[in-house]
Model the fold of this input.
Amino acid sequence: MTWIIDKTFEFCYGHRVWTQKLNGEYAADLKCACRHLHGHEGKMMVHLTGDGLDSTGMVTDFRHLEWLKKWINTYIDHQFIIDKSDPLYGQIIGNRNLIPVLVPGTDHVAGWHLDLTGLEENTPEYEYYEGFMVVDFVPTSERLSAWMAELVEIKMRKLGVSVTAIEWWETPKSRSVFYRDAQ
Done:
């Protein structure tokens, strides 16, 4: 038997899909609005499964995902997710050094925050630079869902729990679903 549990997280984030291209045969116009700096009211659903139920009769306790809520609140919510390869990266970020952001309790680098050394807290400059999550991929909803599947899988495997899928909503009507292959 297989059980799948899921938990939903809501947050706001911004991004820029600098690689966006449209096909005029399908799109109403060729305006690539996702190339603009823009934001979303996002939602993510994490689907988890285990080899069986634990001694309490659960795949895992839903509270075992509290680490993820805290991580999302710190590194995704009200952050601008930017690709290190974005041609405008230098203009947007400048030459600030990067500090690795780890999956909690692991040495896996999930992305980077900017080094704020030398900036005075609670100033406009500090607040601007603290609002970035730097990644090494174009932050489309498809890639964001795959990224989150990897991060959650790395953390949850210690409990014998696997990610089955991640659903990532950019808007209430637009989402991507990443199904993780069985290991």
Notes: The mean pLDDT is 96. The first helix runs from residue 66 to 75. The radius of gyration is 18 Å. Residues 11 and 73 are 8 Å apart (CA to CA).
